[in-house]
Amino acid sequence: MGIFVKLFNKIMINLILFGKPGSGKGTQAEFVKNKYGLVHISTGDVFRYNISKQTELGLLAKSYMEKGDLVPDNVTIKMLEAEVNKSLNANGFIFDGFPRTTHQAEILDDFLKKKDLSITMTIALEVDEAILIERLINRGKESGRIDDQDKSKIKNRFDEYNNKTSQLTEYYKHQNKFYSVEGTGEIEQITQRIYNLIDSKV
Ligand code: AMP
């Protein structure tokens, strides 16, 4: 019987990785994705891909991203739902960069509920802004990302996070799904902290 439960009751892990720009969400999401067999959805990466291909979605997102503003919810939510719908037979999802507003979080909960899914836990990577500015400026030099190259744009992205995204802490604490991890130190140490946290809860 046990084996059937294991075979048929597939365990889904749906994670949200939070953190200010440069906190290492993308890097850590790749490790977590591989270890737990999840599908990684980074809204920033999807936007950048669409900008590089000059799609309609890319053109819509470009001016907001270049200033460091959030792309409007209606555009972002439609795109996110399409990305989830592409991979419905996955073991679970790791959302990186979404949700960023309470409205997005509510919509995500409703959307997953309709598919009999839910968020398992949310993990925030905590890093001081002074360290992040240094990391982002270095990343901007290597990648050419416009929003990483200018301190006023970086500052605007921090403001967007502090004004809109940080409210999500309360939203997920209320659901008993919020955890944070120290995001400084060696990359492998941070990854291990995240694995320990996931393994202790799932
Ligand atoms: P990221 O790669 O996550 O740092 O995102 C880069 C930029 O993409 C952000 O500064 C926003 O302009 C845009 N973006 C990414 N995800 C979202 C989202 N969930 N809502 C609105 N804008 C987003």
Can you give me a brief rundown of this structure?
The protein is an alpha/beta fold and 202 residues long. It is built from ten helices and five strands.
Account of the 3D structure:
The protein is an alpha/beta fold and 202 residues long. The protein has a domain at 8-44 and 90-192: P-loop containing nucleotide triphosphate hydrolases (Rossmann fold). The chain has 10 helices and 5 strands, in the order αβαβαααβαβαααβα. Mean pLDDT is 92; it is low at 1-7.
Features:
10 helices; 202 residues; 5 strands; globular; alpha/beta; Rossmann fold; 5-stranded parallel sheet
Assembly state (oligomeric): single chain
Helical content, roughly? 55-70%
Residue-averaged pLDDT, rounded?
92
Low-confidence stretches: 1-7
Number of helices: 10
Shape: globular
By CATH's scheme, which homologous superfamily of one domain applies? P-loop containing nucleotide triphosphate hydrolases
Structural class: alpha/beta
Small molecules (ligands, ions, cofactors) in the structure: adenosine monophosphate
Estimate the strand proportion. 5-15%
The radius of gyration is 17 Å
> How are the strands of the largest sheet arranged?
2-3-1-4-5
| Annotation, overall tally of beta strands | 5
| Assigned CATH architecture of one domain | 3-Layer(aba) Sandwich
The major beta sheet can be summarized as: 5 strands, parallel
CA distance, first residue to last residue: 21 Å
Identify the CATH class of one domain. Answer: Alpha Beta
The succession of helices and strands, N to C, reads HEHEHHHEHEHHHEH
CATH topology of one domain: Rossmann fold
